[in-house]
Amino acid sequence: MLKQEGYKYCFDSSKCLECGGHCCRGESGYIWVDYATIATIADFLSLEVEEFAKIYLKKVGHRYSLIEKVLSEDDVACIFFDENLNRCKIYKVRPKQCRTFPFWEQFKNSEDEVKNECPGVVSCG
């Protein structure tokens, strides 16, 4: 059970295998990556950074985001979401945004909202 100071809820990571990757799919959005993360993922995939960037990144303003893939008309997922196994293909090197979920500032005072997003979010006993 994970607890983050300043948050009223805890996170049970064992629930990740049960939910079908809800945090990796749904509405379109951005999965922000910095250069260090890009280099780490590229290395993990045995790609040069430039090759990785051409295949997996989109530029948004002055930042980079992983691209998404369309699963159905109203469902998109991170390009690294394995919809057959319902999990991340690059879990060991996933971006910080993914590693810190569900302890995001936007959810700090919204326990009910984040519980709707993630079955692993539980009240701390």
Structure description:
With 125 residues, the protein is α+β, with helices and mostly antiparallel strands. It has one domain. Helices cover 27% and strands 26% of the residues. The protein is built from five helices and eleven strands. The strands form four sheets. It has a three-stranded antiparallel beta sheet, with helices on one face. A three-stranded antiparallel beta sheet has the order 3-8-7, with no helix packed on it. Strand 7 and strand 8 form a beta hairpin. Helix 2 crosses helix 3. The longest helix is centred in the first third of the chain and has 10 residues. The termini are close together. The model has no long low-confidence stretch (mean pLDDT 90).
